[in-house]
Amino acid sequence: MTVAVIAFTRRGAALGKTLAAALGGTLSAPARFAADVGAEPVPSLDAWTAAQWGEAEGLIFVGAAGIAVRAIAPHVKDKFTDPAVVSVDEAGRFAVPLLSGHVGGANGLALRVAALTGGQAAVSTATDVNGLFAVDVWAKGNGLAITDRTLAKEVSAALLDGTPVGFASDFGHPCPEGLTDGPAELGVWVTDRTGAGPFSRTLRLAPQSLILGIGCRRGTEQAAIEALASAALAGYEPRAVAAVATIDLKKDEPGLLAFCQAHHLPLRTFPAEVLAAAEGDFTPSEFVKGVTGVDNVCERAAAAAGGRVIVPKQARNGVTVAVARKESL
């Protein structure tokens, strides 16, 4: 976790320096004494908060909690995207996770701060206080995307009420403590598939299990790639896609790069000889071989990236797409 620390007094800066050093972060302080304490000078608290909000994964305010609350208020969006925010008094007695306790990791960060200061972490989230399974923490720890925020809240509410919550996994995850692998109306399902689940109300947690293999003609627009990729993923969870794979001839293709950027997906490229060596049964094309040097791009690229093809080559408007599932997560 990248951490940024700010302090408002000299005494607070001394503690902040210790925290920043231990947590591998940066320390900022008002310009009037920043140089004296080895901190980066900041023009204002508002400017610092705005600059760090999209950069650091964790923000630590050394000082009164109210100051931190007012500073972050204009930037708060939701617990799935906000950074972890912790306030600690300058004596280090109490470390308070103010925002993104679970998903953002503020609870854990507060515990680390308290361990460093000899103080106490004031964790207040209900599942932690009651020692219950926290679906957002478990999902994050296992690299899973929560596909329905409303159902995620229902899972936590059910556990707090003492109602059984079921669990199933297509990927061999053992049932977490606090959930049941027996009958339940509401449950958690680790899967990369969409559609009906094993429970009446099913919260799907999607692993990074799928690879999109894509080939396209030169100059193909993003919209054409979007349309065929969406069709190829019918029945699968888009948030389970981990990467896009193609031949290295397409590494600078604008439409493909725009598609990857829009979906925050890395693009993996392979030379023709690597694609040709990929193992599996692929759909050959002499035309494609004449252009690229290999008889299939989309399926072979998905396989070369470590997947087993589960949706074979789909072709439309100069685009080819295949979907593969990773052999191991």
- Shape descriptor reads globular
**Largest sheet, order of strands side by side?**
3-2-1-4-5-6-7
In round numbers, the mean pLDDT is 93
Characterize the largest beta sheet: strand count, sense, and whether it forms a barrel: 7 strands, mixed
Uncertain spans: none
Instruction: Tally the beta strands.
Output: 16
Number of helices: 13
Instruction: Tell me the structural class.
Output: alpha/beta
Would you give an account of this structure?
It is built from 13 helices and 16 strands. The chain has helices at residues 10-23, 34-37, 45-53, 65-72, 106-117, 126-129, 135-141, 149-161, 222-232, 254-262, 272-277, 286-292, 298-304; strands at 3-7, 26-30, 40-42, 58-62, 84-88, 94-99, 120-121, 144-146, 166-169, 186-190, 201-207, 210-216, 241-247, 267-270, 307-316, 319-326.
Task: Summarize the model shown.
This protein is of the alpha/beta class and 329 residues long.
Q: Which tags fit this structure?
A:
329 residues; alpha/beta; 7-stranded mixed sheet; 13 helices; 16 strands
Secondary structure elements and pairings:
Layout: E1 3-7, H1 10-23, E2 26-30, H2 34-37, E3 40-42, H3 45-53, E4 58-62, H4 65-72, E5 84-88, E6 94-99, H5 106-117, E7 120-121, H6 126-129, H7 135-141, E8 144-146, H8 149-161, E9 166-169, E10 186-190, E11 201-207, E12 210-216, H9 222-232, E13 241-247, H10 254-262, E14 267-270, H11 272-277, H12 286-292, H13 298-304, E15 307-316, E16 319-326
Parallel strand pairs: 1-2, 1-4, 2-3, 4-5, 6-7, 9-10, 10-11, 12-13, 13-14
Antiparallel strand pairs: 5-6, 8-11, 12-16, 15-16
Helix pairs in contact: 9-10
